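Archive transcription. Copying these from loose printouts into the bound notebook so they stop getting lost. Printout 1 of 2:
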Amino acid sequence: MKRIFLILIFSGFSVSVFAEIYKVAIPDERCGKMCFYWWPVLPKVDGWEQDMPNSYHFSANTQAPTGESFSNAESVIYAKALFKPRIPDTKSLSQLITEDQNKFKEHSSAIINQLESLNTSDGIELKSYQFFPNGKGNYERVSYGEEGEFYLVFTLSSRSKVGYDSSMPSYLQFVGQYREKP
């Protein structure tokens, strides 16, 4: 009975938006605890839609071309909101970027190049990097920023250079129209 009560409480009050960050807590019966999900609220972009099951699975706002899923699309876009108190050893955005790039290098021989920074519609600067495979692998653009208690990470990932290039205008639209809640 207690579990049903908690589910009713959280289903009625589970979604809140702060600074355009989607926050939800869902009781997970499999592990007997609450699972927290946070991700940036992204604008609607023609030709793309959020894949909610994969958003929960990856704890990110996962976007795929309309009619495709995050797991089978050639190109996908996703945005993460990393709650700073949950990663206390990460002391700065620069450290987050360095650690992310080092993890990527462990699994890939990608060439990483820094690109011109991007700005959200309310002026949050996002440091932007290009990850291109040296052989097989995904073509990615990753942009990092900070917003209050969160680090933001926006990613375009494609299985091909053609897919990367054709999805870039949508990625720039997602990032450029993202804003803090007024």
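Printout 2 of 2:
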Amino acid sequence: MLNHIALQINQENDLKNFYNAILGFEELRRFELNENLSSSIFGLKKKVDVILIRKENLTIELFLTDVIIPFQGYNHTCLNVNDREQIIQNCRDQNYEVIEIPREKSNLCFVKDHTGNLFELKA
């Protein structure tokens, strides 16, 4: 059973503009991961603010950091949404990247926050 996923964000305004307003997540709490724990777990000797958000049964830990770590491979998070077209329009209105791939039955749709975290949207 999935407990949570963790993502890195580099801009705090992504929390309000992308995760809250567009994707519909609510902030649960904030805490600071101290330098020693950050170093022991992730190999980054730096304290970091962590914001816990939730929508329905999905919890995400957002690590707010200025450390830029390149994204690799096929990493993405897939969300089931009821209002996919509205979310796509909101992303476009706020200059978040939208990737739509036409297909016969239903287009594939992915959106990115400003850090580059990739979300697939399924209706």
